[in-house]
Inverse folding.
């Protein structure tokens, strides 16, 4: 390792699960990259809903992952482990990580890193991996989305929702979103959604039927689960696909299996964090081949909400939990 790398770093962790105020600064040793890994001097780290759920004690880090929150980072590679070729030191990358993002330095698998295009702000780069990997895998790989189809997304102004809008429009989908206010609906349509439904003032099932002229959507990206699932299935066209990526509204529901058979529906879902490194490497490579050219030419950029200093991670979490954000929240270390 080069002499410019300090022995210790600042990170944001917590001792016991709880509200945002349990997050506190700590001094930790700077980690050393092992085989196939790089050390990133973090400029920015993305804040994601799983970080909040982990802090609340409901989403522990997988085995061998850092207990420090943070699933995506952007910054400069300052050291690399054995078998990493060619020489990546000095390059700016963004990376999907299994933890450790809320720190001045973070370990990443080189196979889970993407090069930051010239001129792209590192804050924007840090806001891409978690939502991009999640939406690409679930909408296009698991959900088989095809050009000309209609996608329904709940939480249209969230990090996932805004990425689903942008990716959907980039690849020829009609995108319908639900949001909790007229202001958020307006924001979602400005971002690119074809239709935005205020689920507090309208029945989204009826609205989806109306805007699809009774045909329904081919695909639902579901972050709510619970009692939303039967309503989502009512929104689907024949041969429709229902993809669940979170259970914010509860894990259980009652389904009408006759409806599923009659409409030939497919129900699937996935999580990302605990998937094997090899799977994430393949996903990263597919994104690099398929989506990254749109990042490089500027046609895909994350929707940015607010940047907080790393030491104000508690305020960033409180901001996310308040629900007023539109797009991505990131933490800055001052290293850019």
């Amino acid at each position: 390792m080069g002499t410019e790398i300090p022995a210790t770093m600042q990170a944001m962790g917590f001792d016991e699960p709880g509200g945002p105020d349990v997050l506190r600064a700590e001094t930790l040793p700077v980690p050393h990259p092992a085989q196939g890994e790089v050390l990133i001097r973090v400029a920015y780290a993305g804040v994601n809903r799983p970080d909040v759920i982990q802090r609340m004690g409901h989403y522990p880090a997988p085995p061998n992952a850092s207990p420090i929150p943070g699933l995506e980072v952007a910054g400069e590679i300052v050291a690399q482990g054995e078998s990493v070729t060619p020489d990546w030191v000095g390059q700016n990358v963004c990376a999907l990580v299994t933890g450790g993002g809320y720190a001045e330095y973070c370990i990443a698998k080189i196979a889970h890193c993407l090069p930051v295009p010239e001129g792209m702000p590192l804050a924007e780069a840090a806001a891409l991996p978690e939502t991009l990997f999640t939406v690409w895998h679930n909408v296009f790989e698991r959900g088989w989305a095809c050009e000309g189809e209609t996608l329904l997304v709940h939480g249209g102004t969230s990090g996932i929702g805004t990425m689903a809008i942008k990716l959907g429009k980039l690849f020829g989908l009609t995108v319908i979103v639900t949001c909790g206010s007229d202001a958020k609906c307006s924001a979602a349509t400005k971002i690119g959604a074809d239709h935005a439904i205020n689920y507090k003032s309208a029945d989204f099932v009826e609205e989806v039927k109306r805007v699809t002229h009774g045909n329904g959507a081919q695909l639902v990206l579901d972050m709510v689960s619970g009692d939303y699932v039967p309503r989502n299935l009512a929104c689907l066209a024949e041969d429709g696909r229902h993809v669940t990526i979170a259970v914010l509204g509860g894990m259980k529901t009652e389904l009408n299996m006759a409806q599923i058979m009659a409409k030939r529906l497919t129900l699937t879902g996935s999580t990302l964090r605990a998937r094997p490194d090899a799977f994430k490497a393949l996903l990263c490579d597919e994104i690099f081949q398929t989506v990254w050219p749109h990042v490089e030419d500027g046609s895909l950029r994350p929707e940015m909400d607010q940047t907080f200093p790393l030491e104000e991670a508690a305020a960033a979490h409180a901001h996310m939990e308040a629900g007023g954000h539109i797009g991505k929240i990131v933490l800055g270390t001052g290293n850019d």
The chain has a mean pLDDT of 96. The chain has two domains: 8-128+273-332, 131-269. The two ends are 20 Å apart (CA to CA).
